[in-house]
Amino acid sequence: MASLAGPTNPFPPPFGRPNRNRAQTRISFCLKPDPQPSNAPESGGNMVTVGGRRFDPGKMKEIETRERKVETNRKIASQKAISIILRREAMKAVIEKKKGGSKKLLPKTVLDALHERITALRWESALKVFELLREQLWYKPNAGIYVKLITMLGKCKQPEIAHTLFQAMTDEGCVVDHEAYTALMSAYSRSGLFDRAFSILDQMKKIPDCRPDVFTYSILIKSCLQVYDFGAVKSLLSEMEMQGVRPNTVTYNTLIDAYGKSKKFAEMESVLVQMLRQPDCQPDVWTMNSTLRAFGGSGQIDMMEKCYEKFQKAGIEPSIKTFNILLDAYGKTENYEKMSAVMQYMQRYHFSWTLVTYNIVIDAFGRAGDIKQMEFLFRLMQSERVKPNCVTLCSLVRAYANAGKAEKITAVLRYADNSDVTLDTVFFNCLIDAYGLMGCIADMKGVMEMMKRRGCNPDKVTCRTMIKAYSMNGMTGHAKELQKELGSF
Question: What does the pLDDT read at residue 488?
Fold first, then answer.
């Protein structure tokens, strides 16, 4: 690994290697819940020590009450602003109903509505507003708006519509520069239509004012890496060199991330070395995170730690994503003491936990079999107003299944019914696996009905999970029947 230079590692000294015996394993995170058992993953307050600070239930209630008062006062104070926003939203809602019925709308109203829909990737609605925009008396063709729309359509995998807009842009006399061509090329490459994308790249080379730049090549390289076409990537890098286009930090980070995810560590290190040789292209926190994720995700903890120390010495400051990567790597390798050190460091330097952070530590507690700590973290998550998602619930379900606590899984389902968490097929597959592991075949079959009610369709994983459950519980006849149906998925 290439050498980096700078300050020292801010983490506490490394702890000894963890005990690999699960029966004796206990995570020590300085998070100590009330010893009384919990009957369901519901919100509540317990005595907790975090980073040397100790809270009791009464104190936490006082804090929550004070926060509610502040929030109420803020709402009252901003009542006038809210009414203005509501009026503006009402006007935006009317825009789509107009459909050309009005040619005297205010520019700001229409442009705000268009920008909102582009940002939210609501491409169908955005195109309706754009048509209304073109009908206004004050309308003048604007290349910037066209480029934003084409870029949005690319993200939504609508390349043909993007091409139609590109043609309309040309017909209206807008200046078509390399940015417009790059947006169209990106639309095709994002949808896997590489022949069309490379054709546009060739067109750009022939137009003096539209020659591809590093941004153009980086987008195409990223699309090729997403389908693991490393041969095309090498050709593009060679072409960049021939054209005199030098890769930038984004290009190198894209390569490092892709090689790391594919476990091509030699290529990843080679790219990093090339990056370090460039005087005006230095690694940043994205470089560090991609490198750490690659080694940590493959269980190479020692290499991950060495890289972290070198990046730190180079003066690159970690982000919340950096700590989440470290926590995930330590948790999956059962290195709970180092995981605890990371958490204490985050607490000491006031890094607020995100949804990803909570999901990682909840999963780690669950796999370690520490149900009380896991439930405490789930309650803490709610008290911090961090909304759980399907990943959170899957971790709870798996932990309860391993502990044989079917009634706790029922509590998770009750929580899901009373919340606005969108349940997907992955969650139901996890639920089927949990009931199968515990031998609750009737409950497992009931999950299929739940899936239908929620509008989730079973997939191959659902079928294989049920086959495994039937086989484990000696129901070979049912397993064979499902095996025959597997081909229809």
Answer: 64
Give the C-alpha separation, 182 to 414, whole Å: 49
pLDDT digits (tens, 9 = 90+) for 439-448: 999 999 899 8
Listed in sequence order, the DSSP H helices in 384-440 are: 390-402, 406-417, 425-438
Q: Residue 150 above 70 pLDDT?
A: yes
Both tokens of 391, joined, read: 């990943």
* Amino acid of residue 100: G
CA 95 from centre of chain:
33
pTM of the model: 0.72
From the CB of residue 382, how many other CB atoms can be counted at a distance below 10 Å?
Answer: 18
- Interatomic CA distance for residues 442 and 429, integer angstroms: 15
Q: How far apart, in whole angstroms, are the C-alpha atoms of residue 203 and residue 300?
A: 45
| Per-position DSSP letters for 210-260, written without gaps between them | G---HHHHHHHHHHHHHTT-HHHHHHHHHHHHHHTPPP-HHHHHHHHHHHH
CB 99 within 8 A of CB 77: no
Please report where in the chains the tokens 């926590």 appear, as a residue. 327
Q: Identify the residue with better confidence: 395 or 99.
A: 395
Looking at every residue in the chain, the average pLDDT score rounds to 83
pLDDT at 483: 82
Q: Is 412 helix (H, G, I), strand (E, B) or coil?
A: helix
3-state secondary structure of 468: helix
Q: E strands of 70-187, at which residues?
A: none
Report the Cα–Cα distance between both ends of the chain, in Å, rounded. 45
Give me 234's structure tokens: 């090498």
As given in the structure block, the two tokens for residue 228 are: 């693991």
The predicted-structure confidence for 372-392, as pLDDT tens digits, reads as follows 999 999 999 999 999 999 999
